[in-house]
Amino acid sequence: MREKAAELRCALQAGVIALLLGAAIGDAFAQGDAKRGQYLAQAGGCLACHTEDKKDATPFAGGRALKTPFGIFYGPNITPDPQAGIGRWSEADFVRAMRLGEKPDGSNYFPAFPYPSFTKISDGDLRDLWAFLRTLAPSSRANQAHDLRFPFGWRLLVAPWKRLFFTPGAFVEDKQRAPVLNRGAYLVEALGHCGECHTPRNILGGQKQGRFLAGGKGPQDKRVPNLTLIIIERPPAAG
Ligand code: HEC
Ligand code: HEC
To answer: pTM, whole model, 2 decimals?
Structure first.
């Protein structure tokens, strides 16, 4: 009898340990949700900059021309092609690009890639975005070089720019605000990157302090309206 009880206890302990181990391993290798990633990619407008502006263009295979005061940027191929796209990347490379604006080799991306906003995307959402990008069909469409005015083509200039205007780090919820306001702020500030076009910029291309969403110029030199004029402040009660 006593033996039976000991056996049972032993089996239970083994079960608990297996469960704990399973949870730990599961977390370390958590897989992103590609379906959710697709929704997040839509919220982030990735397609617009990473797809050529022509009929039958391959989605996410790059080639969209973005006219800015600094010259023309071309969104690169972000399909999993090992040569033309980002097929050799690890998830960590992707997180580094989005969160820190850094290439796998450590050099800086131009902020035409709106990582100053994307840095605020949560870890879980980055994982889902990555899972979605991995499901795309690889495209061998070659990237083209950006066509930038002197001296803006010089990538080394991005380092001092980042020191002045870039604050890395995921979005932090304001616990005093209602969840719906936090969700909205997250969509506006992180994924939707609304400020990239709707906030005016100084001559160095940094967003002007204290003028969030007050209107400016978009990538194609288009006037972008002031959103603060159309927002009626009526915050829902917290809770
Ligand atoms: C406003 C245009 C724009 C939007 C929107 C945009 N990107 Fe990009 N992205 C760029 C540009 C331009 C670059 C290249 C920057 C450079 O060369 O320094 C880039 C680079 C990248 C890279 C690095 C590719 C490489 O080969 O090194 C990744 C990954 C990426 N973007 C993912 C995304 C994802 C995911 C989204 C949506 C959540 C997104 N981008 C939305 C413009 C954009
Ligand atoms: C790539 C640049 C860009 C981004 C990013 C962007 N917008 Fe806009 N937005 C524009 C432009 C340009 C217009 C003006 C459209 C026109 O005149 O045809 C506009 C117009 C608007 C309008 C209409 C305002 C009016 O007075 O008519 C609203 C509202 C708006 N945007 C909200 C947003 C929100 C919310 C986000 C983020 C989720 C966002 N925009 C992100 C470029 C952008």
So the answer is: 0.88
